[in-house]
Recover the amino acids of this structure.
């Protein structure tokens, strides 16, 4: 049985949605609070933080991603439409920036900054992986 909570409009909110959101966000906030506490009492310093960041991003996250991809049945979770979208969106943005650059160069206005040129290619290439690992 699904528990329902009343909302202001006379309807109901599914308790599952609230619990799902809390399960995703509460551990992150608790970890941040613990980090602030440990820094305040002197258990961690900037050097430790830099080394731990390096470990997490170069060892722990790639290992987690590999483990998730190794245990999923790709034939079951493969969604060609989503993969096509993840490929087409950055390509479309790149083409629009190239067109903007070409037009701005011919009109005599300022050239775009490096940030404007690199923005479309800064998309998160890990996005297609998340649905496959859930």
């Amino acid at each position: 049985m699904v528990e329902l909570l009343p909302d202001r409009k006379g309807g109901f909110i599914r308790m599952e949605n609230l619990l799902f959101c809390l399960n995703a966000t509460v551990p992150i906030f608790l970890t941040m609070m613990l980090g602030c506490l440990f820094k305040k009492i002197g258990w961690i310093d900037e050097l430790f933080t830099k080394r731990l960041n390096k470990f997490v991003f170069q060892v722990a996250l790639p290992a987690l991603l590999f483990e998730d991809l190794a245990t999923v049945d790709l034939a079951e979770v493969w969604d060609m439409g989503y993969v096509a979208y993840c490929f087409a969106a950055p390509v479309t943005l790149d083409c629009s920036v190239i067109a903007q650059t070409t037009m701005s160069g011919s009109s005599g206005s300022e050239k775009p900054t490096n940030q404007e040129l690199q923005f479309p290619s800064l998309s998160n290439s890990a996005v297609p992986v998340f649905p496959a690992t859930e």
